[in-house]
Specification:
By secondary structure, the protein is of the alpha/beta class. The protein has two domains: 162 residues, Aspartate Aminotransferase, domain 1 (Alpha-Beta Complex), CATH 3.90.1150.10; 247 residues, Aspartate Aminotransferase, domain 2 (3-Layer(aba) Sandwich), CATH 3.40.640. The protein has 15 helices and 17 strands. Strands 4-13-12-11-10-5-9-7 form an eight-stranded mixed β-sheet, sandwiched between helices. α9 links the parallel β11 and β12. α4 packs parallel to α11, α7 runs parallel beside α8 and α12 runs parallel beside α15. The protein is globular and about 55 Å long. The structure holds 4'-deoxy-4'-aminopyridoxal-5'-phosphate (PMP). The site of 4'-deoxy-4'-aminopyridoxal-5'-phosphate (PMP) has 16 residues, from α5.
Length: 429
């Protein structure tokens, strides 16, 4: 028998060794930066497998998972029906570079579920979807400028990687090297949830704007729901200035109910981007919307877009199986119940809990947290402590204070209670 001390030191052994090896051959040891634990410190756990609400690291430690592949898995890991569909598809050939029946089925499923989507093109990542949405908006309006909101993330294509300068409304500056200033000169940045800043942008630039892109519920600065009337105002002002409104629903699509957040807030965007859930955990995303805009895409129209693995047979199989399972309303009811229970249990004078359905954030902040500035005013240190204490207890939180926690329908009330108890104990220390 190993003593618990020995077990623990062994416990970080494999991940530590893997991370050392990884850093020699993969920049920073990871294939997406947040995985490196940069903002909370420590050695990233290498995940060997997942089932339901849990993941296991290479050492065999199990964790209740609140990352769930950043929102891609509302049914939890390795749902048997999804696995079966993907396995079956794989046996029939993994990719053809030719049209397949399941692409049609998935496109029909998406257009039936989200009324603003008349046509949809399938791609492989959220980044591709938003990049294509902007290209379409520019072609449709014959204008160049785009508007995004500070704190919203839309993938890593050049025009989105901007930070605001000083002042309320600003032209974006590249937030990454390797992006020409000339590219971000066409990106304007406004404050999320701030109607005044929106009106200012439109007063000075309304005629030059091709599109506004927004996460209808911000999920990449932690969870920040829209203030009442914000999205409605956005729709109104875009219509008035003939600007294409893009809802980036890569996270929110099929997260709160069967369809987009747009159905819940009753705002119809012109274009919508989807990802994560619609691929059932496989690389699949989509851009959809008004047919007259989508029909600008090649081969029908002059806007070029393509992809070797677009509409991949295995990914579409996993996506269709996932969406079929999500048609069961009990799943969303369960996600709401679990989300509410967790949020209630975490309530504490030192934290502001923002939650919609199964997606939440705990900001170490007196609150309210409704803007990017308020998010940034949160204390990062207590989150780092919480993260590591939770990791030691077998609870895996997002390795960043400003990312959303995701609950799946595979989580249990008991696991939520365990998480709340862990929070009360660690937060009082
Ligand atoms: N849009 C939003 C709202 C996202 O959250 C993300 C990724 N987290 C993306 C776009 C980019 O998606 P991907 O990582 O698949 O490129």
């Amino acid at each position: 028998m190993l003593s618990s001390e020995t077990k623990k030191s062994q416990a970080v052994g494999n991940s530590t060794r893997l991370f050392e090896r990884a850093q020699k051959v993969i920049p920073g040891g990871v294939n997406s930066p947040v995985r490196a634990f940069g903002s909370i410190g420590g050695t990233p756990r290498f995940i060997a497998r997942g089932a339901g609400s849990r993941v296991w690291d290479e050492e065999g430690n199990s964790y209740i998972d609140y990352v769930c592949s950043w929102g891609a898995l509302p049914l939890g890991h390795a749902h048997p029906t999804v696995v079966e569909a993907a396995e079956k598809a794989l046996r029939d050939g993994s990719t053809f570079g030719a049209a397949t029946a399941r692409e049609v089925e998935l496109a029909e499923t998406i257009t039936a579920a989200i009324p603003s989507i008349e046509k949809v093109r399938l791609v492989s990542s959220g980044t591709e979807a938003t990049m294509t949405a902007v290209r379409l908006a520019r072609a449709f309006t014959k204008r160049n400028k785009i508007l995004k909101f500070e704190g919203c993330y839309h993938g890593h294509a050049d025009p989105f990687l901007v930070k605001a300068g000083s002042g309320l409304l600003t032209h974006g500056n590249p937030s990454s090297q390797g992006i020409p200033k000339s590219v971000t000169d066409d990106t304007l940045v406004a404050s999320y949830n701030d109607v005044e800043s929106l009106e200012q942008v439109f007063t000075s630039h309304g005629k030059e704007l091709a599109c506004v892109i927004v996460e209808p519920v911000a999920g990449n600065m932690g969870v920040v729901p829209p203030r009442s009337g914000f999205l409605q105002k956005l729709r109104e002002i875009c219509t008035k200035h003939s600007v294409v409104l893009i809802f980036d629903e890569v996270i929110t699509g099929f997260r709160f109910h069967y369809g987009g957040y747009q159905d819940l807030c009753h705002v119809r965007p012109d274009l919508t981007t989807l990802g994560k859930i619609i691929g059932g955990g496989m690389p699949l995303a989509a851009v959809g919307g008004r047919a007259e805009i989508l029909d600008l895409l090649a081969p029908l129209g002059p806007v070029y877009q393509a992809g070797t693995l677009s509409g991949n047979p295995v990914a579409t199989a996993a996506g269709i199986a996932t969406l079929q399972l999500l048609q069961d309303k009990n799943i969303y009811a369960k996600l709401e119940t679990l989300g509410a229970k967790l949020a209630d249990g975490l309530k504490n004078p030192t934290v502001a809990i923002n939650r919609i359905g199964s997606m939440l954030s705990a900001f170490f902040n007196e609150g309210p947290v409704e803007t990017y500035e308020q998010v940034m005013a949160s204390d990062r240190e207590p989150y780092k402590r919480l993260f590591h204490r939770f990791l030691d207890r077998g609870i895996y939180l997002p390795p960043s204070p400003f990312e959303a926690w995701f609950i799946s329908a595979a989580h249990t009330e008991k696991e939520i209670e365990e998480t709340i108890n862990g929070f009360l104990e660690t937060n009082n220390r």
